[in-house]
Specification:
The structure holds two protein chains of two kinds. Helices cover 54% and strands 13% of the residues of chain A. By secondary structure, chain A is α/β, with parallel strands linked by helices. Chain A starts with a strand and ends with a strand. Chain B is α+β, with helices and mostly antiparallel strands. Chain B has helices at residues 2-15, 28-36, 70-81, 109-114; strands at residues 41-44, 47-51, 54-64, 89-97, 100-102. In chain B, strands 1, 2, 3, 4 and 5 form a five-stranded mixed β-sheet that branches. In chain B, strand 4 and strand 5 form a beta hairpin. The longest helix of chain B has 14 residues, at 2-15. Classes of the chains: A alpha/beta, B alpha+beta. Chains A and B meet through helix 4, helix 6, helix 9 and strand 10 of A and helix 1, strand 2, strand 3, strand 4 and helix 4 of B.
């Protein structure tokens, strides 16, 4: 498309088309039934008492009627044939839809199996490569040191070696080759297992290769399951005192009411507010906007921030690395309970429509809450918006309209190693960012241009996601237009914005 | 073998992708100190933030005394910061005067745009833009943070 967006799912998506196929099959089935009923009625005509009574007086005419009825019912173009044709078409349509889904699911399983094997092999080779590379460098260095003639060359090599340039080159390669970035992220869970297997083998031979990963992961490794792979990592971390989801529950009011300028009125605005939540002075807060409709009912937009603390041990802020890995392992988290608590404090009532939104970890938390039946029993989640979040594995019910924004060069939404489902109620928008440095408009009203580099770091930036949101707001894509129409209640009407502390 | 080595290099680079970015023309500490010395500024809490997801931004607040012109202080603050890291986001820099908080979008767009042309006096001395004769825009409004 001219706006550079690729839209999957939603009203115009494949899932919707498959659903259409099944609906068409249903219509054909019904039509086939109707035609068969008519066929019976027509056949009954030939056997009616009037006709059979007339057989003695007008045998030729009655025979003609019988022939015509037979032709109209069981003849080559008869109603029974038409009925059978309609019903068999319905069977073919249903079978096509089912076959497509089966092939798609099988293809996904095969790809995941291949990724697991490749990742394990790469992970298993890593310690050897690092060790070998180190020995090679050390050996080469010693040889050069022993040969005074090579000292000028050695000095030149050391002077010209720029680690920052090497790193920048590698990052450029990743940015220019999203497929490589995607492959590496998809292989990551099995790579960790492969590396642990090698280290275990080095320490304790073949037995060590089996027992070390098993013990470290709490019996979860080796596994092909994504959740168990990450769960094993959580368990291994626990042995060293990291990834512990500790802290006091509950949320407390922060700056109770903030400017109504913070009320989001569009997808772009949602990510403008995610950016605002990411500013250091706002760390540890979530934002809840109450929008009052013409009929006096309230709708709520709950905004959850992306990762703010990268230390593997929990401090006071649960918007951290521990919450990331636990969410990806499918565990319940303290952060989810804090969001629910803040919603209760804010006054969200059962039945009030709720939109959950988040960037990065915030999107994962939103998806986790929208997949939690207890949470859904308490709150009426109608919508989820994520940006740069790996959420494909969450089982979000069809009653929730999901919009996921993903940049092709952003590694974070690839971390779950799977494409988002193509469903009528789940729209995924992918955007390929420019190949060279670019600028995006500041999502705040100032609108000045913000310079962004063509790198994987900036591909995850909230300002760039806000710009993608702006493109969505103006898109003519039918899936996006339908999604936006469905969410109108969250973006219009008098609004009150509050922020809630989740720290402590 | 070369393919494996490239892969290892790339993985190492990914692991270290949060490496520090070089500072701009004038170091941050010099700029923040210069903000603290502006007329009417009583305290300031400016920081450089470059985190995954919220990259390359100056954020924070300068508090000014009652007699100061907060719009002018913000204009000068943004002018100073424009001599720092190129392309940085300054949308979350504010000036507070009691309950009144002034943000960059409270300044006229033309005034902000003109700041891009400021040149430092030297490598260690930033220049301070003059508010006189500059249309800074509409009167500021009172509101709560953030």
């Amino acid at each position: 498309m001219s706006d550079g967006l690729v839209v999957n799912g939603g009203a115009g998506g494949l899932g919707a088309r498959l659903q259409d196929l099944r609906s068409q099959a249903g219509l054909l089935d019904a039509a086939g039934n109707d035609v068969r009923t008519w066929s019976g009625l027509v056949a009954a005509t030939a056997l009616s008492p009037d006709i059979t009574g007339a057989a003695l007086l007008c045998p030729v005419e009655v025979a003609q009627v019988a022939t015509s009825v037979a032709a109209a019912t069981v003849g080559p173009d008869g109603l029974m044939i038409v009925s059978a044709g309609l019903e068999s078409s319905a069977v073919v349509l249903r079978a096509s839809a089912t076959t497509y889904e089966f092939v798609d699911a099988s293809q996904q399983r095969i790809m995941e199996a291949l990724q697991n094997v490749a990742g394990f092999a790469l992970g298993a080779a890593l310690p050897g490569l690092v060790l070998g590379g180190g020995l090679l460098l050390a050996g080469g260095g010693l040889t050069a040191l022993r040969t005074p003639g090579s000292w000028p060359l050695l000095a030149l090599a050391l002077r010209n070696t720029d680690p920052a340039a090497l790193q920048a080159g590698a990052m450029d390669t990743l940015y220019d080759s999203p497929w490589l970035l995607e492959s590496l992220t998809k292989m990551a869970p099995s790579m960790v297992q492969g590396t642990t297997w090698t280290l275990g083998s080095l320490l304790g031979g073949p037995l060590g290769g089996l027992t070390v990963p098993y013990v470290l992961s709490g019996g979860k490794w080796p596994t092909g399951s994504y959740e168990d792979a990450v769960g094993g990592l959580v368990n291994a971390g626990g042995m060293f005192g990291v990834f512990q989801d500790t802290g006091a529950g509950g949320a407390t009011a922060g700056e109770q009411v903030v400017s109504t300028d913070h009320a989001p009125r569009s997808v772009r605005d949602l990510f403008r507010e995610q950016r605002s939540l990411g500013v250091e002075s706002s760390h540890g807060q979530i934002q809840i906007t109450q929008v009052v409709g013409d009929d006096g009912t309230s709708s709520w937009v709950v905004q959850i921030p992306g990762t703010q603390e990268w230390a593997p041990t929990r401090g006071t802020n649960p918007v951290d690395l521990t919450t990331n890995v636990r969410l990806m392992a499918g565990h319940e988290t303290l952060m989810e309970s804090k969001v629910a608590d803040a919603m209760r404090h804010a006054g969200v009532q059962p039945g009030d429509p709720v939109m959950l939104t988040g960037h990065s970890q915030g999107g994962i938390t939103a998806a986790a809450l929208a997949s939690d039946s207890a949470f859904l029993d308490e709150f009426s989640v109608r919508s989820v918006v994520t940006g740069g979040s790996p959420v494909a594995r969450f089982d979000i019910p069809d009653s929730v309209a999901v919009l996921s924004l993903e940049h092709d060069q952003d590694a974070v939404p690839m971390l779950e190693g799977r494409e988002n489902p193509d469903r009528p109620n789940w729209v995924t928008v992918e955007r390929s960012l420019p190949e060279s440095d670019y600028s995006v408009p500041d999502p705040t009203p100032s609108g000045v241009a913000l310079d962004r580099t063509a790198g994987v770091g900036d591909a995850h930036d909230t300002a760039v996601y806000a710009d993608t949101g702006r493109l969505i707001d103006y898109s003519s894509d039918p899936s996006l237009q339908q999604w936006l129409e469905q969410q109108e209640r969250f973006f219009s009407g008098p609004a009150t914005v509050t922020r809630w502390h989740v720290t402590g | 073998m070369r393919r494996w080595v490239s892969t290892v290099l790339i993985l190492t680079a990914v692991a270290g992708c949060a490496a520090a970015e070089p500072e701009g023309r004038i170091p941050d500490a010099t700029l923040f100190a210069a903000v603290g010395e502006l007329d009417g500024v009583t305290s300031s809490s400016l920081v450089w933030q470059d985190s995954l997801g919220n990259s390359r931004m100056y954020t924070g607040r300068a508090d000014v005394e009652a007699a100061a012109d907060p719009q002018c202080v913000l204009y000068q603050t943004l002018g100073l910061l424009s001599q720092g890291r190129p392309g940085a986001d300054t949308a979350y820099v504010s000036v507070a005067q009691g309950d009144l908080v002034i943000r960059p979008d409270d300044l006229a767009f033309a005034a902000r745009s003109g700041l891009a042309d400021l040149t430092p006096l030297s490598d260690t001395r930033p220049s301070v833009p003059d508010c006189a004769g500059t249309d800074l825009g509409v009167a500021p409004r009172a509101e709560q943070t953030p």
